[in-house]
Design a protein that fits this description.
This protein has 3 domains: about 80 residues, Rna Polymerase Sigma Factor, Chain: A; about 50 residues, Arc Repressor Mutant, subunit A (Orthogonal Bundle); about 120 residues, Response regulator (Rossmann fold). Helix content is about 55%, strand content about 10%. It is an alpha/beta fold. The longest helix has 20 residues. It has a 5-stranded parallel beta sheet, sandwiched between helices. It has 12 helices and 5 strands. Strand 1, helix 9 and strand 2 form a beta-alpha-beta unit. The radius of gyration is 18 Å and the shape is globular.
């Protein structure tokens, strides 16, 4: 497989990571573009990427560490992104990276250590620090849109264990509308393929026409959302998921105060 094909296979997930790290699609994609430009200009860096995901994320992390503020080409931040940038000082970039690498991106502690030029013990300490900081956020009510009962119950247990409340559950777009009419949530966890063939994407659009709130998509079909053809969700968790991944996504969404799913 050519280097270009290797990078292309991992690029959607690197873009997901960059969006979660920065709090917006525009800013995350700008950092990824900057990394790719650096790769094209540096033969040694290009050669180092032949080893797969770890070298790719390591190259991205070097670009992220060397940048400050909004990346070049993204001069005008939205209100959400400006708020996210203002919060960057609360959690150090290495701590947020360590948390996202070991949860959202499912790297081992040893792989995350290689990506960030840290020891495994340091990664464990960074993750613990990040969780402590983001768990200081206020609790909220969460709507769960999920058509598989066992998964819905698992998410309910996780949400309540984190100190949040469940405002409602829905297995279809119609049920989601009813749930929001009955109780407005502070955050939404949504599958994209629902019981009656309706779309979780459409259900979320309905909700955001009523009020703004963070949205986390949890799906077995991430490739349907990571196409680059439309605005993509900042928070996207792949099934089967680890509870730590969902916990990190909830904490990140509340930390950044996202008001849209992109």
């Amino acid at each position: 497989m050519s280097l270009g094909s290797q990078i292309a296979a991992h690029l959607p997930f690197l873009r997901r990571y960059a969006r979660a790290l920065t709090g917006s699609q525009a800013s995350g994609d700008a950092y990824v573009r900057e990394m790719l430009e650096a790769v094209l200009a540096d033969e040694a860096l290009k050669a180092s990427l032949a080893g797969g995901r770890v070298p790719l994320y390591r190259a991205f992390s070097k670009v992220w560490a060397s940048a400050s503020g909004l990346p070049a080409g993204d001069k005008t931040a939205s209100e959400h992104e400006a708020g996210a940038q203002a919060r960057l000082g609360v959690i150090t970039p290495p701590a947020r990276q360590a948390l996202l690498l070991t949860t959202l991106e499912d790297f081992s502690v040893e792989e995350a250590a290689a990506i960030l030029d840290r020891t495994p013990d340091e990664i464990d300490q960074l993750v613990a620090a990040a969780i402590t900081d983001i768990d200081r956020e206020q609790t909220t009510s969460i709507l769960i849109i999920e058509d598989e009962p066992l998964i819905a119950m698992q998410l309910e247990d996780l949400v309540t264990s984190l100190g949040h409340t469940v405002s409602g559950t829905a297995a279809t777009r119609t049920q989601a509308r009813s749930a929001v009419a009955a109780a407005l949530p502070g955050l939404v966890l949504a599958d994209i393929q629902l019981a009656d063939g309706s779309s979780g994407l459409d259900a979320v659009d309905d909700i955001l026409n009523v009020a703004s709130m963070p949205v986390i998509f949890i799906t077995a079909y991430p490739e349907r959302l990571l196409t680059g053809d439309r605005p993509e969700p900042t928070y996207l968790v792949t099934k089967p998921f680890q509870e730590a991944t969902v916990r990190a996504a909830i904490s990140q969404a509340l930390f950044f105060g996202s008001t849209r799913p992109l």
